[in-house]
Amino acid sequence: MDEIASAVRVLREGGLVAFPTETVYGLGADATNAATLHRLYAVKHRPAGHPVIVHIARSSRLDSLARDVPEIARVFADACWPGPLTLVVARLPGVVDGAATGGRDTVGVRVPDHPVALALLDAFDGPIAAPSANRFGKVSPTTAEHVRADLGDDVDLILDGGMCAVGVESTIVDVTSSTPVILRVGGVSEARLATLAGQPLERRTTGEIAAPGTLPSHYAPDTRVELVAARDLEARAAALRASGTRVAILDAPADPTEYARVLYARLRAADAAQCDVILAVVPPDDGSIAAAVGDRLRRAAAG
């Protein structure tokens, strides 16, 4: 593909390439190039101590970035890669630049499940650091149009792969200790991970910056988000409208998988409508991807 060749050239020259994954669009940079990574952080307005995820083409390349990889990491990778799971592992010195890891001796790694992303990774033949392709703390992009609207000329090239199939970010699991710990809920359910591990996993999704997307306020649209119970939704909307407030109701599909897929697009649509408040119902946390939807809504509401 000519577009892939162009993207590889941009990356090797120190540029930034936005590309689709199954979760959200990523803003890619050569993970071994400190200068490019500093530009990536500047474009995103991302704090320097906040690590980014590094993408690889296949699980067999994990050992080229990581040391002392535990067996549970290989179990998770074999079952979930390519897919929306990031593993935090001990970083092998001298490969991924410390700018991508917030200076830590760990690195978050995943293999994305999207043909365009995998073609890019294969052709580049190296690790690509790629946080979401938007300004830090804002709603993640799930289409190429979202990336263009957010970043404009700050991104050198955008690969358009259509709308993302999962729609929320990857689950992040720290496997550097004796018991795996979920640092961010996401596209792989907690229930599936517990089955693979043969035991429940601890969640540690607040107060951490060892993983992306775990600040109290994150994924926030410009419009204020208010969370309401389903039984109170219509009454709350009526009360706000009676006071002259422009209200958007987040149209929430009953299927949590579909809710996740359309969540960010619908938050962006409410922004575009220039409403004053978005009313949203949080789905029950049943161990499925609904947990990720609820997590993103709560952080958006804290913005």
The radius of gyration is: 19 Å
Query: Could you say which structural class the secondary elements and strand pairing correspond to?
Result: alpha/beta
* Total beta strand runs: 14
> What's the number of helices?
9
CATH superfamily of the largest domain: DHBP synthase
Distance between the termini: 40 Å
Helix content: 25-40%
Largest sheet: 11 strands, mixed
**Overall shape:** globular
CATH topology of the largest domain: DHBP synthase
* CATH architect. name of the largest domain: Alpha-Beta Complex
Report the order of strands and helices.
Answer: HEEHEEHEEHEHEEEHEEHEHEH
Mean pLDDT metric: 94
Poorly predicted sequence stretches spanning 5 or more consecutive residues? none
Number of domains in the coordinates? 2
Please report the first level of CATH classification, the CATH class of the largest domain: Alpha Beta
Give the strand content: 15-25%
Structure description:
- With 303 residues, this protein is α/β, with parallel strands linked by helices.
- The chain has two domains: 2-203, DHBP synthase; 224-301, no CATH class.
- Helix content is 32%, strand content 17%.
- It contains nine helices and 14 strands.
- Strands 1, 2, 3, 4, 5, 6, 7, 8, 9, 10 and 11 form an eleven-stranded mixed beta sheet that branches. Strands 12-14-13 form a three-stranded parallel beta sheet.
- Strand 13, helix 8 (256-272) and strand 14 (277-280) form a beta-alpha-beta unit.
- Helix 1 (2-12) packs across helix 4 (115-124).
- The protein is globular.
- The N and C termini lie far apart (40 Å).
